[in-house]
Hints:
Elements: H1 5-13, H2 21-29, E1 74-82, E2 93-97, E3 113-117, E4 123-129, E5 140-146, E6 152-158, E7 178-182, E8 185-189, E9 192-193
Parallel strand pairs: 1-8, 1-9
Antiparallel strand pairs: 1-4, 2-3, 2-5, 5-6, 7-8
Amino acid sequence: MPSTRRSLLTAFLTLPLIDAARVNAFAQAAPELPLTLSCDDGDEPTLEREAGPFFRPNSPLNRDLYPDSPGGERITVAGFVLDNRCRPLSGSLVEIWHADENGDYDSVGSRLRGHQFTDAQGRWWFNTIVPALYPGRTRHFHFKVQRPGGRVLTTQLYFPGETRNAGDRLFHEALLLELRKTDDGQFGQYDFVV
């Protein structure tokens, strides 16, 4: 069984893409994780959430955000961008921004901000840190996702088991990351449906 973020990411990147079997293959690699929504009968689009006051346009093309905050707990966040029939959407834009290990956002630069485009199988991933809690919010990542020629989905992903989830007005359990602890941090997975 993989025990590092790198080995889980490698396993994720080598998964064959065969409809719902893709989800089952990941579940076999990490059997204690609950599955994301099934692709059997079509999926509902991912829920939208507000961007919040800390969004800044023109983030750098960068998936390795960890060097921006080397004191934080490492996490790799990965998934697919899919249409509502569970078909992968290559070339989709995926943008992330989040608070640092102290609960602060970079309001002048591009620290802990980045974007990328999904690969031919619709996969995306970021190496970053676990954001800290800050007043009024539970722990979360902000995302913007856009399929080629489509509209922009703005949403947030949350951490399971956080005590503040219940009190956060934006929280929804459909936006929970599937998390796995490893020897060198955490590995989280979520598939966007746009």
